[in-house]
Amino acid sequence: MRKENFEKFMTDKQVVAVACNQWGDTGKGKLVDLLSNWADIIIRGTGGANAGHTIVVDGIQNIFHLIPSGILHDQDNKINVLGRGVAFDPRVVIEELDILAGANINIKNLKISHQAPLMLPYHLLIDRVSDKKQKIGTTGRGIGPLYTDFTARHSLFVNDIFNKEVFRDKLIKFLEIKKSTLNKIDVAQAKEILNHPHLENGIYFDEENILNIDAIVDKYTGEYADRLRDYIIDLENFVTKAKQEKKNILLEGAQGLLLSIDYGTTKFQTSSDCAIAGLAKGCGLRDDQVDYVFGITKAFYMTRVGNGPFPTELGGKQSEEYCDSNHTKDEEAKQYAGQLDKLLVAEDGFERGVGIRLLGGEYGATTGRTRRTGWLDLVALKYAMQFNGPNLTLTKVDVLSRLAKIKLAVKYKYTGPEIFYAGQKLSPGDEIDFFPRFSEILYDCQPIYQEFDGWKSDISQLEDYDQLPEQVKKIINFIEDYTSGKIDVVSVGPDRGQTISKL
Ligand code: GDP
Ligand code: IMO
Ligand code: MG
């Protein structure tokens, strides 16, 4: 790390954000943890317990779903906040607080926006039941149904758990509307869904009491309210004051732009806006109040969990179907033991994809699912940067160090039927350099690659940008030219220290 340059760079910033340019899991947690040294306040603004942010400190791995990734910096003057845009699941937050307290981490300085929409047990059930048909491959954490209720004006809010009668009245009215759907779900089916291997770890829903108003009211306005009362704030007042006091504020994004409800690949999206605009709003700010955005980009490959188009996926449809069907890290480690070198040079794309998954440790931090792997797609990246801005933080650059060749997608060949798209007609064989977010079109886009030499040396211990192999710098320069972007940081390992500043 060119520490001095980086520190100097941060001196004139007051609000900075970490937002992902891909389908999530790009190492946001690591960057947030790192930037937390600089920050006085760290705010999560989007998503919910669908997120899994991994932080490695001195070789020890920590995964957070809801609590901001700045929490490991437990100095008394750092404040971590759950913003108004977060799908707030009190059960998960309390569970994470207990884990942190057990590890002697200071949790006094957590704050929670009184306006965050509130997760209820039936949101988790509806998510799991509806995804059986929708086949998005959601995390089953209730995200879609809760944000749907928010938009439909059927949502409860954090503030409601402190007002028992208000909570009960709203719950009765909103449950009345829900019941027509919920009554169609029988408990046997619910149990079978709950037993789905990707959904069992971590969070469950209370299936016995799913429609039991008294039980929900008691739990939320009783135990949950008692545990959370001291953390509640008016977020907008809090950030306004913090800005006046010249505090450094860090916004922690969740998911990634290509999953955003506004910009992501249609249907196969999450339900909040993970772009910088949605993140700022979810943190109680306007996006023009953000001084700098770290656009986190996995390189020189990318991943996706759950279903949906992924033009550069190694192994294509075979990989998508395989990753949708309950394979685990342990199973793959056993099945492919000792075969990594062979996998990485295999003719078969699927096998090379498995090789990259093994190299990068690409297994879901929330659901444990195998992440689909493929080459870095610059068409998709340039699209994402339209909304997240020109600055790129490259992560996991160490992962492909064993490969002889690296490929980057620079265009697509459209192979589907003739179709109308944004004022033009797309015909089979057309080459396009834009990203059609409609999944029915994107599924028919085949990548056209530019190939680069690999570097075949370990870069994970390098500290200075100039020490990086020429081949790595050549690819980085190409990405900057192609996207008209600027790379600020290159991450070469999961640990805090494995970070190189290009500033
Ligand atoms: P997030 O959701 O964006 O915070 O990312 P995840 O935590 O889901 O996944 C990123 C994974 O990559 C985690 O296991 C991190 O510890 C790890 N990681 C982050 N940066 C690097 C890096 O530069 N190199 C390597 N090898 N691993 C990294
Ligand atoms: P972080 O913050 C990767 C994906 C799910 C699914 C789709 C919809 O760790 O990067 P949802 O449960 O949100 O309704 O699922 O979005 N997804 C993520 N993929 N990283 C995440 O978060 C994700 N959060 C949701 O796999 O395809
Ligand atoms: Mg993640």
Oligomer: single chain
Query: What small molecules does this complex bind?
Result: guanosine-5'-diphosphate, 6-O-phosphoryl inosine monophosphate, magnesium ion
Number of strands: 19
What can be said about the biggest beta sheet?
A: 10 strands, mixed
- Total of DSSP H or I helical runs spanning 4+ residues: 18
The rounded Rg comes to 22 Å
Termini separation comes to 9 Å
Shape: globular
Strand composition percent? 15-25%
What's the helical proportion of residues? 25-40%
Overall pLDDT confidence: 93
**Spatial order of strands in the largest sheet:** 7-6-5-2-8-1-9-12-18-19
Structure description:
With 503 residues, the protein is of the alpha/beta class. It contains 18 helices and 19 strands. The longest helix is centred in the middle third of the chain and has 19 residues, at 164-182. The mean pLDDT is 93. The protein binds guanosine-5'-diphosphate, 6-O-phosphoryl inosine monophosphate (IMO) and magnesium ion. Residues 20, 24-30, 52-54, 56, 361, 365, 395-396, 398-399, 491-494 line the site of guanosine-5'-diphosphate (GDP).
